[in-house]
């Protein structure tokens, strides 16, 4: 049988999927063991056990200075900024995406501006945000929102334009006004696309969140990583990176699942990741 | 006086003429089938009747009134695809027209009015034979069922004109025959005027009370896009609202005498008028 027609069974598929992870962890463990054999004090590739120990300290032993469980307070602070930033971006994306997608006048008015705005590297706006908004939460949330909004507006505007013209015409022949077309034809079909847009927006959102926290924050996952960098504390940095990755993965899968649950009609045909 | 009247319709996309000098007058209750080669402008003509596009020149009147510049509830439409709403079930699709009419802001009905809309939707569901698929989404329906739903949805507004753009083009022959029979039944029942674009010449002869052929009357072999198309044959078929004579040889319905060589004759004259193009 041709290779192209060979489909792995479920256990084989799971094993194949786990293989690269196991190889990466194994390679790390070997590398770490070699370095520590030469120098037991090696900081660059700490053992899995010492990383576990460091994470235990971060997650379950109260910090001596603040009395907080740092892993959880960092996670909460970061997720809060991420959620508020994404929520602002989502609201703006729905409003402007719909205006651009539904109304030719809205497209003429906003599409060029959004296209130009989306080309500004958001990180260059960060100093402006710090100057205007101060070093508080608003600047960090603002960076996440600014970094994701143009992308999400364009994704949603395209999502509206992807609704077949025939549907819009048909709705008009059924007596619908522009507003009714928006309410009953466009928006209901836009919600699953909003979830997809959020999943896309989360990728830059994490980058801008960590960047903002690295520059000016007193808590958060990005703040912690850049703080302990001064002590070469790879035993904290590496697990934090894994933890951030895991959070990002879980949020992405959660959104994908929510879309399937809430908008089953949108997932009736075709494969999706 | 005729119901649908088109006078000297011209359509040009950029430099390319699509339709030239289309004149037509159609009586109320006719079932007009439209055939022609791909790209001959027959779908463009349908979109103009719909109000989705405007002619570059010329005028269309319906019942004496100039055609509205946009689609409205006076003219129903069924396209080959995408004529129903994928996020609504069969019931939801059929309730939508009543919800548009009854709720200007939300487009949703509640309570007794919702119940009334549901009953009207269920009656239509019976008529188009989709009662068993009440809660299914369009993606879960076969092509024929989707088109039945699209026609039923369009008819709920009781349009005086129904425009069909290759509605059965993607269906298998058996389903297509069933759909043709259903269309004839609904047409006789409602007395509406139907314009149907089709690629299937048999279908055009079998269904229509009148057959229009769109084609180019002038050809420039060096520049095929130089001229637009017009109605080259206008063939009266069976009488209006005549009972279906059943499966017959479609060709016997149109005697050679019925073919009006009018457009072809016109083209000869016009060719003489035309400065060298």
TrEMBL record, chain A:
Organism: Jiella endophytica
Family membership: Belongs to the binding-protein-dependent transport system permease family.
Protein name in the entry: ABC transporter permease
Domain ABC transmembrane type-1: residue ranges: 79-259
PANTHER family in the cross-refs: ABC TRANSPORTER PERMEASE PROTEIN MJ0413-RELATED (PTHR30151:SF0), ALKANE SULFONATE ABC TRANSPORTER-RELATED, MEMBRANE SUBUNIT (PTHR30151)
Pfam family, one: BPD_transp_1
Example GO biological process: transmembrane transport
Topology of the protein relative to the lipid bilayer: Multi-pass membrane protein
Cited InterPro entries: MetI-like, MetI-like_sf
Alphabetized UniProt keyword annotations: Cell membrane, Membrane, Transmembrane, Transmembrane helix, Transport
Alphabetical list of PROSITE patterns matching this protein: ABC_TM1
Location of the protein in the cell: Cell membrane
Automatic annotation (TrEMBL), chain B:
Gene3D superfamilies reported in the protein's UniProt record: P-loop containing nucleotide triphosphate hydrolases
Keyword Ubl conjugation: no
Xref: Pfam families: ABC_tran
GO terms assigned for molecular function: ATP binding; ATP hydrolysis activity
Coiled coil regions, renumbered to chain: none
Family: Belongs to the ABC transporter superfamily.
Transmembrane residue ranges: none
Name listed for the protein in its UniProt record: ATP-binding cassette domain-containing protein
Domain ABC transporter: 4-241
Source taxon at top rank: Bacteria
Record's keyword terms, sorted: ATP-binding, Nucleotide-binding, Transport
Lineage: Bacteria, Pseudomonadati, Pseudomonadota, Alphaproteobacteria, Hyphomicrobiales
Biased composition (Basic and acidic residues): 268-277
Chain spans, region Disordered: 238-277
């Amino acid at each position: 049988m041709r290779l192209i027609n060979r489909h792995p069974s479920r256990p084989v598929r799971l094993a194949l999927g786990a293989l690269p992870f196991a190889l990466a962890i194994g390679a790390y463990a070997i590398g770490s063991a070699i370095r520590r054999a030469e120098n037991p004090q090696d900081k660059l590739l700490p053992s899995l056990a010492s990383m576990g120990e460091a994470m235990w300290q971060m997650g379950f032993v109260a910090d001596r200075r603040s009395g907080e469980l740092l892993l959880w307070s960092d996670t909460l602070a970061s997720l809060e900024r991420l959620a508020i930033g994404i929520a602002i971006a989502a609201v703006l994306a729905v409003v402007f995406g719909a205006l651009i997608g539904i109304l030719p006048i809205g497209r003429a008015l906003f599409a060029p501006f959004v296209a130009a705005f989306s080309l500004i590297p958001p990180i260059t706006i960060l100093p402006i945000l710090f100057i205007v908004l101060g070093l508080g939460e608003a600047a960090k949330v603002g960076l996440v929102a600014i970094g994701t909004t143009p992308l999400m507006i364009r994704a949603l505007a395209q999502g509206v334009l992807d609704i077949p013209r025939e549907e819009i015409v048909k709705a008009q022949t059924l007596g619908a006004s522009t507003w009714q077309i928006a309410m009953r034809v466009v928006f209901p079909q836009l919600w699953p696309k909003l979830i997809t847009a959020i999943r896309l927006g989360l990728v830059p959102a994490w980058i801008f969140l960590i960047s903002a926290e690295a520059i000016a924050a007193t808590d958060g996952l990005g703040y912690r990583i850049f703080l302990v960098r001064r002590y070469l504390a790879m035993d904290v940095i590496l697990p934090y990176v894994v933890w951030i990755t895991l959070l990002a993965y879980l949020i992405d899968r959660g959104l994908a699942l929510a879309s399937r649950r809430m908008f089953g009609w949108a997932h009736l045909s075709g494969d999706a990741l | 006086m005729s119901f649908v009247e088109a006078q000297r319709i011209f359509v040009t996309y950029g430099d390319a003429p699509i339709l030239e000098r289309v004149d037509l007058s159609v009586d109320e209750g006719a079932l007009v089938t439209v055939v022609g080669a791909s790209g001959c402008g027959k779908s463009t003509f349908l979109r103009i009747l719909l109000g989705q596009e405007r002619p570059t020149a010329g005028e269309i009147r319906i019942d004496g009134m100039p055609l509205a510049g946009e689609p409205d509830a006076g003219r129903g439409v069924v396209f080959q695809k995408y004529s129903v709403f994928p996020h609504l079930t069969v019931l939801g699709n059929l309730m939508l027209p009543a919800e548009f009419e009854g709720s200007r802001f939300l487009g949703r009905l509640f309570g007794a009015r919702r119940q009334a809309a549901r009953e009207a939707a269920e009656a239509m569901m019976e008529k188009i034979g989709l009662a068993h698929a009440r809660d299914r989404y369009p993606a879960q329906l076969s092509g024929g069922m989707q088109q039945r739903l699209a026609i039923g949805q369009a008819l709920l507004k009781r349009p005086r004109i129904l425009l069909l753009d290759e509605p059965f083009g993607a269906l298998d022959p058996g389903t297509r025959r069933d759909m043709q029979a259903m269309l004839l039944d609904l047409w006789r029942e409602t007395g509406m005027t139907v314009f149907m674009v089709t690629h299937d010449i048999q279908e055009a002869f079998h269904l229509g009370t009148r057959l229009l052929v769109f084609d180019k009357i002038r050809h420039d072999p060096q520049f095929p896009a130089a001229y637009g198309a017009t109605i080259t044959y206008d063939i009266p078929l069976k009488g209006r609202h005549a009972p279906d004579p059943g499966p017959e040889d479609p060709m016997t319905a149109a005697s050679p005498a019925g073919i009006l060589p009018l457009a072809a004759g016109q083209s000869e004259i016009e060719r003489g008028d035309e400065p060298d193009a």
